[in-house]
Design goal:
Number of domains of chain A: 2
Strand order of the largest sheet of chain B: 6-7-8-3-9-10
CATH topology of chain B: Rossmann fold
Largest interface: A-B, 18 and 24 residues
Mean pLDDT of chain A: 92
Oligomer: heterodimer
Structural class of chain A: mainly alpha
Mean pLDDT of chain B: 91
CATH superfamily of chain B: P-loop containing nucleotide triphosphate hydrolases
Shape of chain B: globular
Number of domains of chain B: 1
Number of strands of chain B: 10
Distance between the termini of chain A: 47 Å
Number of helices of chain A: 9
Order of helices and strands of chain B: EEEHEEHEHHEHEHEE
CATH class of chain B: Alpha Beta
Distance between the termini of chain B: 30 Å
Helix content of chain A: over 70%
Helix content of chain B: 25-40%
Order of helices and strands of chain A: HHHHHHHHH
Radius of gyration of chain A: 22 Å
Radius of gyration of chain B: 17 Å
Low-confidence stretches of chain A: none
Shape of chain A: globular
Structural class of chain B: alpha/beta
Chain lengths: ~270, ~210
């Protein structure tokens, strides 16, 4: 395996391109130059930091430290899901539904992959666990965020229809089944599309990385395929859990639609 | 059939209400808009959180599953909502075929001036008035034992209003069904008779 090491000079050259982009934004008065520079700086700092953290973790292989890292990743993902909701659930539920669904799906699928499919020894070897969990969490995060947002938005807009079904003697599950189905579909479409076009339009990010780092293309393709299957399972499981928990929370024990459990619309969306 | 008894039903705009309707009795309810009339009906149907208990005959609401309660104590909201594509899909028994529609539904449709074929119509085709009249037939097809009507004739012309009044009266007599009717129309209250209550300053009072 030939791994060409990148020097700071190489990265500086690449960053000049970003500076040029910022300059262009300023020249054309697009007004995004500040955001470009901040985002670029953030990514540089975050990725270097993660690099250091992973280097440290890989050297230790200590379960408590790895567990801590997993917790940090999960809480960041939970926060991101909450941020993307137009109407959040009030109280802890706003954070909890998303975070719990991702925990359930990503952690089980990662565990399954590590123990049964890849067969790493010990199962928590961080070189495998952290990147796998990251990929799964990142994708489950998008799916869960879209599905939950669609669920609460539609429930809010269809209040009359939902209550009409309740008044007609329907159970809470019957009265929201259409909306549930729509929301799940919305959450799953991105990953299904990604699977359908993988390799045709662009090489998926992980495969690209492996090839650049010197892996044989066929090995990289096999790993990418494994990851894609895991990701779709994880995203699906996470979205199902989030939509089920979320829709249950919209009704109380007397099967009333409780839109007061959602907060006011967030103005930024 | 059974009477309807509201036992200290209250919500945030209204002091607890005690009200007893005998089986087959018609009671009118009026009051300024925003006084909480619709909220009272929603509370009885258990659609909003509320305090108190409602009895249908000697069966308590809290002892029944909510879907069963809402089928037996039918609420007709002021604005009707439809969740499926065609009219017929909203009816519990019949799906689309008008020939197989059970006689009562066909009879009710005819009383409101509809052909049985209306069951095949798409919801998007209906006018507001048609939706309101069909919503009543949809509600009656659940065979409710008590009716809560919220402005059941608000969007109708005089002829349509009369048809709806006649249908409700027929159903009330035949099924000995208690009817609690929110109406702004003093003429309607006079025409149909029965006790009248008004909500003033968050309290339910007999209309003088």
């Amino acid at each position: 395996m030939i791994l060409i090491h990148l020097t700071p000079w190489d990265l500086t050259l690449a960053s000049v391109l970003v500076l040029l982009l910022a300059a262009m934004s300023w020249r054309l008065r697009l007004g995004v130059e500040r955001r470009i520079l901040i985002a670029a700086t953030r990514s540089a700092v975050q990725l270097m930091l993660v690099g250091f953290v992973l280097k440290f973790l890989f050297a230790q292989t200590s379960l408590p430290l790895i567990a801590l890292m997993m917790l940090v990743m999960l809480s960041a993902a939970g926060f991101e899901v909450m941020q993307r909701q137009k109407r959040r659930y009030r109280g802890l539920w706003g954070y909890g539904i998303g975070a719990f669904s991702m925990f359930l799906s990503s952690f089980t699928v990662t565990l399954l992959a590590l123990t049964v499919i890849i067969g790493v020894e010990p199962w928590y070897q961080p070189q495998y666990l952290i990147p796998l969990l990251g990929m799964l969490l990142g994708n489950a995060m998008s799916g869960v965020a879209i599905a939950l947002d669609s669920l609460t938005r539609q429930a809010w807009e269809s209040r009359g229809k939902i209550e009409a079904r309740l008044l007609a003697g329907g159970t809470w599950e019957e009265s929201i089944e259409d909306i549930r189905r729509e929301s799940l579909r919305a959450g799953l479409i991105p990953i299904v599309n990604a699977m359908g076009t993988a390799g045709l339009v662009s090489l998926p990010g992980m495969m690209t990385g492996q090839i650049l780092a010197g892996s044989p293309p066929l090995e990289a393709a096999k790993y990418q395929l494994l990851i894609m299957f895991l990701i779709s399972a994880g995203t699906g499981l996470g979205s199902v859990a989030a939509v089920w928990l979320g829709s249950r929370r919209l009704f109380d024990d007397r099967q009333r639609l409780r839109l007061d459990r959602l907060a006011e619309a967030d103005g930024r969306h | 059939m059974a009477g309807l008894r509201l036992d200290a039903i209250g919500h945030r705009l209204l002091a607890p209400v005690n009200l007893t309707l005998a089986a087959g009795e018609l009671v009118f309810l009026s009051g300024p808009s925003g006084s909480g009339k619709s909220l009272l009906l929603r509370a009885v149907a258990d659609l909003d959180p509320n305090a108190g208990e409602v009895w249908l005959g000697d069966a308590a609401r809290s002892a029944m599953t909510p879907p069963y309660w809402r089928r037996r104590v039918g609420l007709l909201p002021a604005e009707s909502f439809w969740w499926a594509e065609s009219v017929g899909e909203h009816f519990p028994v019949t799906k689309t075929a008008s020939a197989s529609a059970p006689p009562p539904i066909v009879g009710w449709l005819a009383q409101l001036g509809f052909d049985p074929d209306v069951l095949n119509w798409s919801i998007a085709r209906l006018s507001t008035g048609e939706r309101q009249r069909l919503a009543l037939v949809r509600l009656l097809s659940q065979e409710p034992e008590a009716l809560l009507l919220d402005e059941a004739t608000a969007n109708l012309d005089p002829a349509g209003r009369e048809r709806v009044e006649t249908l409700v009266e027929t159903y009330r007599r035949n099924a000995r069904c208690a009817v609690l009717w929110v109406s702004h129309d003093p003429g309607q209250r006079r025409r149909l008779g029965g006790r009248s209550y008004v909500i003033r300053d968050g309290r339910l009072e007999p209309e003088s």
